[in-house]
Write a structure and sequence with these properties.
The chain is mainly alpha-helical. It has a domain at 27-109. Helix content is 82%, strand content 0%. It has helices spanning 2-26, 30-49, 52-55, 57-75, 79-123.
Amino acid sequence: MNSKVLQISLCLFLGATVTACASKASRPSAEKAIASIILASAALEDAKIAGAGEYAPVQLRTARVKKAAADKAIDDKKFMQAQRLGEQTVADAKLAKAAAVVAKAHQKLGREQDSVEDVQPASLVPVIQSRTYEEYP
């Protein structure tokens, strides 16, 4: 009988342990939320360095607003909301960075096209006909 009680106790203990681990994994933790916010800060810095402040100010502002909301959610211990806002901040910051890169590329393309147009008229000057190989003695 003692071994039967021991087996049941062991099964209950293992079941409780598995349940506790599973429920803890599904709940957002402060660490995950903070990690998300750290990634968001890094993404915002990347966007700033890429020139998003000048070339994609609306997208950058959206990312900053979400980052501020994530920070507030951490302060309020709303970790799930903070994690979600941190992830959205990363996405918005990456969008701002991409928009800045595209805007810079378009600007550079415009400059290159202008320089090509400056060179083209010179290349349209008629070339003096040179002698062919057969005309030489």
